[in-house]
Design goal:
Largest sheet: 6 strands, parallel
Number of strands: 8
Structural class: alpha/beta
Helix content: 40-55%
Radius of gyration: 18 Å
Distance between the termini: 20 Å
Bound molecules: 3-methylbut-3-enyl trihydrogen diphosphate, magnesium ion
Strand content: 15-25%
Length: about 240
């Protein structure tokens, strides 16, 4: 975990539940999809801010396993935005030395989106700066269920011995295998819940909720979150 010039501890891994795109649009009398469009611009800006701040991992919740419940118009618009932003992200990642990873079950997406995701990961995997993780068709319970399925099949095939399963073993079967757990979780738009995000990984993460709607999130908001994080005392179950 690094410190910047002002002596502030920079969290190594920041996770974000970007929320409030719909409300941002409604406030302006615009369709919800305009909020998502603006939200994508904010994601791009946040990637650059995080890289500049010295954050090593940034994990954003782009689309949950429950978001399929929304209208077909809204889901369709979100898929179109993914298509568009995946291409832009490839350029941004390449020019900012950013490695992009996707977590979640990508198999439910159309073939061209899956190919786009694979390409983004493939072409940025040797970048050494910020690791930008996007959770798409992601649900913490779904991730754990998929992990349990693979653990069970490895046990049945004799590749894994059930008595030897440790917490590290479980972590290594999750989509986030190899990544550190988030230090700070930011949720925008005031809702105080996890909405099925990173259920295993957030066990000891500091949670910061702001009323700011996601499209309005900016450098000042990120700095406020990091300042709040610096005021927390992390005990991890121990005594200080
Ligand atoms: C977050 O904004 C983006 C996604 C969940 C895809 P919302 O669309 O949830 O915005 P609100 O919560 O309705 O304002
Ligand atoms: C969480 O936001 C999912 C994403 C940010 C992708 P939601 O807007 O879907 O969460 P709820 O419905 O308010 O819990
Ligand atoms: Mg929401």
């Amino acid at each position: 975990m690094g410190e910047n010039q002002s002596g502030m501890v920079i969290p190594k891994h920041v996770a974000i539940i970007l929320d409030g795109n719909g409300r941002w649009a409604k406030k302006r009398g615009l369709p919800r999809t305009m909020g998502h469009k603006e939200g994508c611009v904010t994601v791009e800006k946040t990637v650059e801010l995080a890289a500049r701040a010295g954050i090593e991992y940034l994990t954003v919740y782009g689309f949950s396993t429950e978001n399929w419940k929304r209208s077909s118009e809204e889901v369709g618009a979100l898929m179109q935005l993914f298509r568009y932003y995946m291409v832009r992200l490839l350029k941004i990642a390449s020019s900012n030395n950013v490695r992009v990873c996707m977590i979640g079950d990508r198999t439910r997406f159309d073939a061209d989106i899956i190919e786009g995701i694979n390409r983004l990961e493939r072409e940025t995997k040797t970048n050494t700066g910020l690791t930008f993780v996007i959770a798409v068709n992601y649900g913490g319970r779904d991730e754990l269920t998929r992990a349990v399925r693979r653990i069970a099949s490895d046990c049945a095939a004799g590749r894994l011995c059930s008595e030897e399963i440790k917490e590290e073993t479980v972590a290594s079967y999750l989509d986030t295998a190899g990544m550190p757990d988030p230090d700070l979780l930011i949720r925008t738009s005031g809702e105080i819940r996890l909405s099925n995000y990173l259920l295993w990984q957030l066990a000891y993460t500091e949670i910061y909720v702001t009323d700011c709607l996601w499209p309005d999130f900016n450098q000042e908001e990120l700095e406020k979150a990091i300042l709040a994080y610096n005021k927390r005392e992390r005990r991890f179950g121990g005594v200080k």
